[in-house]
Amino acid sequence: MSQRIKRTKSVSPYFREKKAKIQDTEQSYKGVSDILQYDLKVLFVGINPGLMSSTKGHHYAGPTNHFWPCLSESGLVDQKVTFEDDFDMPSRYRLGFTNLTARPSRKASDLSLSEQQEGIPILNEKISNYRPRIACFVGKGIYEIYSRQKRSTLGLQEQSIAWSNGEGETQLFVMPSTSGLVTSYLKPAKLE
């Protein structure tokens, strides 16, 4: 009779220490402020700020992020825009920005699922109170966390969020992630 050896998941002290150093470093980064205004055309919802965005104090500020080049070519704006223009977007184009999770990290996978889900009621309240016409989730993964179910389609979703004033609702839209770390969509697909 053979005995089964029960394996336990163990992490070497080197990697445990390395992860702790990364987390300590990330704790020193500040979140990126929401850029909100009432009655926006589109509120872009990111999963969380990257470290470069935190350092620069602007949304989607990483050099490999395709957000700003895609926005510039989308038809939502009439000129080339960069992360340095994010504060002007509500007044110039009625576009705003927020994140599901405020804590910056190197990559979204550094956040726990529960940490990300804690932001759902806060996001719902922002959307309900600020009344954007569309809340655009920048990535399928963030929408799957938000809706708590797997979605295979991009674009307009069936779900909507009622406004706190009872006079309308926000449509939910899902686009591919613009992160340079996401390689399943090339820039032309992200632009669509």
Write the layout of secondary structure elements.
Blueprint lengths: L12 H15 L14 E5 L4 H6 L10 H7 L15 H5 L1 E5 L13 H5 L2 H11 L3 E5 L1 H8 L7 E8 L6 E7 L11 H5 L1
Structure notes:
- It comes from Choanephora cucurbitarum.
- It catalyses: Hydrolyzes mismatched double-stranded DNA and polynucleotides, releasing free thymine.
- Its EC number is 3.2.2.29.
- InterPro entries: MUG/TDG (IPR015637), Uracil-DNA_glycosylase-like (IPR005122), Uracil-DNA_glycosylase-like_sf (IPR036895).
- One of its GO terms (molecular function) is SUMO binding.
- With 192 residues, the protein is of the alpha/beta class.
- It has a single domain (31-191), classed as Uracil-DNA glycosylase-like domain (Uracil-DNA Glycosylase, subunit E, 3-Layer(aba) Sandwich).
- Helices cover 32% and strands 16% of the residues.
- The protein contains eight helices and five strands, in the order αβαααβααβαββα.
- It has helices at 13-27, 51-56, 67-73, 89-93, 113-117, 120-130, 140-147, 187-191; strands at 42-46, 95-99, 134-138, 155-162, 169-175.
- It has a five-stranded mixed sheet.
- A hairpin with a 6-residue loop joins strand 4 and strand 5.
- The longest helix has 15 residues, at 13-27.
- It is globular.
